[in-house]
């Protein structure tokens, strides 16, 4: 194996301006005698550029230090290269983002860098699935975006968008989430949707829909990224007090127990219509696609480094 192939490419996505986290990660890597090269993203737009650079420079182990959105950028870049190249690359994560839902699914914890690096060193690889949303943008271009965790349509996409905005002002993740939920009381709480799932055609007002390849921020607790299926949670309109009850069940891992939640498992979701409903992909706002769109799953397409 060449020198470059034996080294890790570390793609560091900082949460703030402090360099302490970077220094801690580098110290752990040095202590664990990991050979690595370190690159740092300046913005969300630079992640795919740096990922592409690492791929084309021959790195076979690429570790993203970041959250769900950074991982999303990385896998979308990875899916642009030929399958033969992609199959030789293993993708890992050291959680360091605003949302680390996909990392937590595998039991990677943000504060436990030593354990995470030790697991990554063992190079235990699992082929994982990716979801894919195919849509038309406002320029009438045919687009697609892969996702590791989930696509949210409607209220939760609104909350996540607002949470990111309030996070930059308030600093605290928990406080920004609470404020976002409070502000959403004054926003649209339901959307006219026409969705086809398996043999069902749902044509009615819906609060939110989550289509997941992973845990979906608690909305699809039974979803796993290796069974070739998508889990779907459709939430119909409910009263304001029931919204807070649903949020409590979401935070306590019992979301599917809410009477307004209707779960499905499928290989494809066709959204015929979802007027004015924002779409979030792995925690980042996609916007409002023009017309209908399809969400599918592609089985075993990425090598992911998992715990021992």
Descriptive report:
With 308 residues, this protein is α+β, with helices and mostly antiparallel strands. The protein is built from ten helices and 15 strands. The chain has helices spanning 3-6, 20-31, 45-56, 68-78, 83-86, 101-105, 113-121, 155-170, 173-184, 240-251; strands spanning 8-12, 36-40, 61-66, 90-95, 125-136, 142-147, 150-154, 191-197, 200-212, 230-236, 261-266, 268-274, 279-281, 284-287, 293-305. The longest helix has 16 residues, at 155-170. The model has no long low-confidence stretch (mean pLDDT 86).
N-to-C order of helices and strands: HEHEHEHHEHHEEEHHEEEHEEEEE
Treating each run of at least 4 consecutive H or I residues as one helix, how many helices?
10
Rg measurement, Å: 19 Å
Helicity level? 25-40%
Number of strands: 15
Largest sheet composition? 15 strands, mixed
Helix/strand/pairing category: alpha+beta
- How far apart are the termini? 24 Å
Estimate what percentage of residues fall within beta strands.
25-35%
Give the low-pLDDT segments: none
Mean pLDDT: 86
The 3D shape can be described as elongated
């Amino acid at each position: 194996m060449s020198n470059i192939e034996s080294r890790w490419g570390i793609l560091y996505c900082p949460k703030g301006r402090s360099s302490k986290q970077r220094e801690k990660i580098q110290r752990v890597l040095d202590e664990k005698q990991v050979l690595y090269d370190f690159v740092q993203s300046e913005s969300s737009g630079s992640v795919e550029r740096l990922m592409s650079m690492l791929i084309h420079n021959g790195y076979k182990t690429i570790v993203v230090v970041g959250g769900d959105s950074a991982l999303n950028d990385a896998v979308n870049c990875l899916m642009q290269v030929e399958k033969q190249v992609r199959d030789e690359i293993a993708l890992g994560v050291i959680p360091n983002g605003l949302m680390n839902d996909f990392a937590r699914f595998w039991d990677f914890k943000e504060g436990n860098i030593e354990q995470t690096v030790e697991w990554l060193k063992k190079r235990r690889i699992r082929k994982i699935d990716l979801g894919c949303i195919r849509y038309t943008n406002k320029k009438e271009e045919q687009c697609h975006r892969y996702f590791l965790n989930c696509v949210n349509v409607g209220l939760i996409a609104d909350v996540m968008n607002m949470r990111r905005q309030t996070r930059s002002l308030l600093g605290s993740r928990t406080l920004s989430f609470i404020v976002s939920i409070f502000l959403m009381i004054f926003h649209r709480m339901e959307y006219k949707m026409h969705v086809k799932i398996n043999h069902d055609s749902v044509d009615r007002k819906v609060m939110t829909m989550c289509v997941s390849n992973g845990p979906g921020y608690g909305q699809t607790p039974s979803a796993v990224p290796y069974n070739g299926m998508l889990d779907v949670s459709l939430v119909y309109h409910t009263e304001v007090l029931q919204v807070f009850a649903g949020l409590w069940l979401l935070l306590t891992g019992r979301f599917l127990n809410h009477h307004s939640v209707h779960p499905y498992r499928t290989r494809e979701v066709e959204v015929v219509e979802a007027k004015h409903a924002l779409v979030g992909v792995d925690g980042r706002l996609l916007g409002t696609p023009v017309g209908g769109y399809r969400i599918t799953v592609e089985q075993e397409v990425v090598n992911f480094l998992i715990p021992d």
